[in-house]
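Shipment paperwork, digital attachment
Item: protein structure file
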Amino acid sequence: MFKNFGVVLPVTLFLTILFVSPSYSQGKTIKDGVFTIEQVAAGQGVYETNCKVCHDLKFYRDTWKGWIDKPLLNFYYMIVAEMPADNPGSLLDAEYTNIVANVLLEMGFPAGESNLDPNDGMDEIIIVAP
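Attachment content:
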């Protein structure tokens, strides 16, 4: 009766893992209120001073497709490593984090109750389309 059980079970497990909906495995996305309105407010002035000259909202809308399905931490690290263009990495971690929150709100994503923190779960937040 259980003659093929040793083969059927592994095959069944493999197929289950293969065909499980990605939405079950994705977890949190940037649509889940992953930053606070306070972070946005703190990031607005920093963004105006350091980013807006080169990066208006149209810039993010045009390039956002390349970030979809990637962790938000990747976007954060890119900004830290490359911006501002004349002095990359020169801002405080909190300033970069608040800039990301500001960009997310400008892109139409909702604020929430949780502070965005690159050292606490930002690698598990997935970027999605607006």
